[in-house]
Each structure stands twice: as structure tokens, then as C-alpha cells.
Amino acid sequence: MSESHSPEAVKRHKKVYLAVFFALLIGTIVTVFLRKIHFPAFWITVAVALFVATIKGTLVACYFMHLISERRAIYSTLAVTIFFFAAMMYLILWSRSQVPRGTEYIPTKYYPYPMAVPAK
Fold first, then answer.
1. Domain ranges of the chain
2. Is residue 27 a contact partner of residue 52, using CB atoms and an 8 Å limit?
3. What's 112's DSSP letter?
4. Contacts of 9 (CB under 8 A, 6+ apart)
5. Which residues does the chain have with pLDDT short of 50?
6. Max Cα separation, the chain?
7. Is 6 helix (H, G, I), strand (E, B) or coil?
8. pTM above 0.85, yes or no
9. Of the chain's two ends, which shows fewer C-beta atoms within 10 Å, N or C?
10. Is the Cβ–Cβ distance between 22 and 28 less than 8 Å?
């Protein structure tokens, strides 16, 4: 019998999964509780909600999707993603200086389609 299927290993994994389950349950209770709290600014509400969601998502991805043991693949994928994100941001900023003179966007009343202009 292999090491990972021994009764002791199964009990150890069961404890880990139960701990993650209860952590997610507590995270859900915290989410419901925080919904009832009104923060003074909207950005605080968003930051707190994203923080709780990030913790819960990390727990699910690491333990239930078994990504915690795939460090090399995860970090290499993350590095490639960061590289391409930075490249796209650079291209966007670089292209801002390439706009021909006199063609900058001047804010006016926005009509999404030419036919949507109200008749006078």
C-alpha cells in the first residue's frame, strides 16, 4: 500500500480538508456580517470584500484544486502573465504619445450610435 493511501495519511488529509471547510464557513459568515456594516467610503467596502474573497479563493484553489503542491507551474504561469500584462500596459502608455496632433478626444455629449442623435 502506498504512503498516500495509508489510513494515517487519509486521516491527516481529512483533518486538513475539514479545517479548510471550516475556514471557508467562517469566511462566509464574515462576508454576511460585513454586508450589514456600512463603511464610510465605497472603496473601503470594495477593499474589504476583495480581501475576504481573495482569502476564500486562495483556500479553494490551494487545497480543493490541489494547486498548493504545484508551485513551479503556478509561479511560471504567474511570471508569464505579469510579463504580458506589463507589456500591454507599456504599449498603451507608449501609444498615447503617438496620437496625431489635433485628434485628441474632446469631451462632448456622447451618442453611442449615429442614429441615436435626438431630432431637433
1. 1-65, 70-96
2. yes
3. S
4. 3
5. 1
6. 84
7. coil
8. no
9. C
10. no
